[in-house]
Amino acid sequence: MYSLFDFGRMLTRPRVAAYTEAMRRAIRPGDVVIDLGTGTGFFALVAAKLGARKVYAIEGLAHAAQLAKTTVRDNGLSDVIEVVHGLSTELELAEKADVVVADLRGKLPLFGANVPSMLDARVRLLKPEGRLLPKRDLVYVSAFESDALYTYLLGGYEQPGYDLRACRAAVTQGMLNDDERPLAPEQLIAEPALLFSVEYGTSPDRYKGKVTLSARRSATVHGLVLWFDAEIDDEATFSNAPGESVDVYGRVVLSLIHISEPTRPY
Q1: Cβ-count burial of 85 within 10 angstroms (0-12 exposed, 13-18 middle, 19+ buried)?
Q2: Would the CA dihedral through 31, 118, 128, 135 be positive or negative?
Q3: What is the pLDDT of residues 147-203, one digit of tens each?
Q4: pTM score
C-alpha cells in the first residue's frame, strides 16, 4: 500500500492542484462524492482522503476502470471507493451525492458528452443542495503570428513541382493544435476575446459567440487559437492559454491560408 501523496508530481500540476484545492473546500466529512470519468481514480482518492464516506468513481472505459480499481486497492481504500464501469447517464446509484467532481474536457470544454453528462449529474445524481465541480469554463479566442507553427502545420503542402493547394485547404478546415510548436503570449496579435462561457449544470441550446479582433501591431495572421480558463470554484482556477501549462489538454488552432490564393474543389 502507498500513500496518496506519493502522487506528489500530480499535485503540482495546475489542473490537479486547482481541483484538489476546490475539493478541500467542497468535501465535508461523511459526504457522498461522485467522480465522473475517474480515469486513474486519482480524484476519487483525494475525495476519500478528505473524509468522504462513500465515493463512486465512474469510468466509461473498461481498461481505465480496471486501472482505477487497482489504484484504489493499492491505496487501501476499497471500503470507501466503489469503481463503477459505465456511463454516468445510464447508471442508477444507491444514493445521491453531496459533491460531483468531473474533469471531462478535451482541448475545449465542448468535448464529447462533457456538458450533457454534467447536466445529467446535476439533475439525477446530485442532492439539490449539492456542490458541482467545476463551476464554469470561459472560452477565449485570439489571432496569432507564428512562422514556425504555420510551417509545421502547412509547410508539407508546399512542394516544388506539385500543386497541393486542395490538400492544404482541406487541412485548414479542421481543428489543429500547437502541441509540437506551442504558442507564446507574445505571438498573439490581438487582445483575447471571450467567445462563450460554459456554465456547468445548465442546458443551453447551443454555444455561440461573436467577437471582433483588432490587431495590436503589424503582423501576418497565421490563424486563430482557442483556449479556456477553468473556474473549478470561486477561488480555484487554471488555464490552457498560450504560455500556460496545458497539462493533459492542448489548444485548438484554426489555421488560415492566404485568401488571395484560389483553391480547387476536392
Answers
A1: middle
A2: positive
A3: 999 999 988 888 889 988 888 888 888 889 999 999 999 999 999 999 999 999 887
A4: 0.86
For residues 56 and 34, give the distance between their C-alpha atoms in angstroms, rounded to a whole number.
5
User: Which amino acid does the sequence have at 27?
Assistant: I
Q: Which long-range contacts (CB under 8 A, 24 or more apart) does 217-221 make?
A: 217/189, 219/145, 219/189, 220/145, 220/147, 221/143, 221/144, 221/145, 221/189, 221/256
- Single out the residue of 218, 222, 227 nearest to residue 247, CA to CA: 227
Grid cell 472560452 in the structure block, residue: 139
3-state SS class at 19? helix
Distance CA 217, CA 90 (A): 51
Helical packing angle, 147-154 and 165-172, nearest 10°: 110
Partners of 102 in beta bridges:
36
CB atoms within 10 A of CB 36: 24
- What secondary structure does DSSP assign to 70-118, as a single string? HHHHHTT-TTTEEEEES-GGG---SS-EEEEEE----SSS--TTHHHHH
